[in-house]
């Protein structure tokens, strides 16, 4: 089971250092949302605020960014880098009651949706706080497009006795939906002009420890957390062999695919 309590100062600081991979695809999401000067934007699941600060620069002094995250240690790091037009708080996607109806031009969830066990309430809340004509953007792992790393993990477990007791291969992003399901969820929440597409990204890691550090920090300590110490050590050793086979001149090459969704709250254009 995913737990927020597994986060630590070290994990939060590591994520702040290695989070450029999610920052990179997050900028593409923001571009697709056409975020611009003077807009009021809500970042749901802001992490340590790399993307929040970028959006604050885009909206400029006439605009504002509100951001929230359920992990206090990451919120604290976000506050340290926050410009004057970025306000950050601890909060969850399921409860945006701190914000009035029709407060925002744009709401986005970048690499957040696959962490949410229940999808309907977060979308209802996003719909409520958006202005008529406002836009929502989501980037998320999709069930039909597993990342290279996940495929390697499955292969390692298949070839070992780590799942001999009937357990599933542990995946931190266990609350994923398919692209079709994401489309349907947005429509049922009342959004229109829904567009969903899969996008591919290639990451290069310096070494295997870099891979493990990224996965552990981005999952706030939940990567392989269901395994015993001995099982994690074995998994790491088996994964290292598989990962080294993907080494190129640029580093260990891993591809991932994300579903990008853009939709609108009905109303004025």
Break the fold down into its secondary structure elements and pairings.
Blueprint: H1 9-18, H2 20-32, E1 40-44, H3 50-59, E2 64-69, H4 72-81, E3 86-90, E4 104-110, H5 120-129, E5 130-140, H6 148-159, H7 179-188, E6 192-205, H8 208-218, H9 229-244, E7 247-248, E8 251-264
Parallel strand pairs: 1-2, 1-4, 2-3, 4-5
Antiparallel strand pairs: 5-8, 6-8, 7-8
Helix pairs in contact: 1-8, 2-3, 6-9
Structure report:
This protein is of the alpha/beta class and 269 residues long. The protein contains 9 helices and 8 strands. It has helices at residues 9-18, 20-32, 50-59, 72-81, 120-129, 148-159, 179-188, 208-218, 229-244; strands at residues 40-44, 64-69, 86-90, 104-110, 130-140, 192-205, 247-248, 251-264. Strands 1, 2, 3, 4, 5, 6, 7 and 8 form an 8-stranded mixed β-sheet that branches. A hairpin with a 2-residue loop joins strand 7 and strand 8. Helix 1 (9-18) packs across helix 8 (208-218) and helix 2 (20-32) packs parallel to helix 3 (50-59). The longest helix is centred in the last third of the chain and has 16 residues, at 229-244. It is globular, with a radius of gyration of 19 Å.
């Amino acid at each position: 089971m995913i737990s927020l309590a597994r986060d630590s100062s070290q994990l939060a600081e590591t994520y702040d250092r290695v989070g450029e991979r999610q920052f990179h695809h997050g900028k593409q999401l923001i571009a697709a949302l056409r975020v611009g000067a003077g807009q009021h934007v809500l970042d749901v699941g802001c992490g340590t605020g790399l993307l929040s600060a970028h959006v604050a620069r885009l909206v400029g002094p006439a605009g504002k960014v509100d951001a929230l995250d359920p992990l206090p240690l990451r919120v604290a790091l976000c506050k340290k880098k926050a410009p004057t037009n970025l306000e950050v708080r601890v909060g969850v996607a399921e409860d945006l009651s701190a914000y009035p109806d029709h407060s925002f031009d744009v709401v986005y969830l970048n690499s957040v949706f696959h962490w949410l066990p229940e999808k309907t309430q977060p979308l209802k809340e996003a719909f409520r706080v958006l202005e008529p004509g406002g836009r929502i953007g989501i980037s998320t792992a999709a069930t039909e497009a597993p990342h290279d790393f996940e495929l390697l993990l499955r292969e390692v477990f298949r070839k070992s006795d780590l799942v001999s007791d009937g357990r599933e291969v542990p995946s931190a992003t266990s609350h994923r939906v398919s692209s079709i399901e994401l489309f349907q969820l947005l429509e049922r929440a009342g959004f229109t002009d829904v567009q969903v597409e899969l996008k591919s990204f290639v990451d290069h890691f310096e070494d295997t420890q870099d891979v493990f550090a990224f996965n552990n920090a981005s999952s706030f300590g939940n990567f392989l957390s269901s395994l015993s110490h001995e099982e994690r050590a074995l998994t790491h050793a088996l994964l290292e062999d598989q990962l080294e086979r993907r080494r190129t001149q640029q580093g260990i090459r891993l591809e991932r695919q994300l579903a990008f969704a853009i939709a609108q709250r009905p109303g004025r254009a």
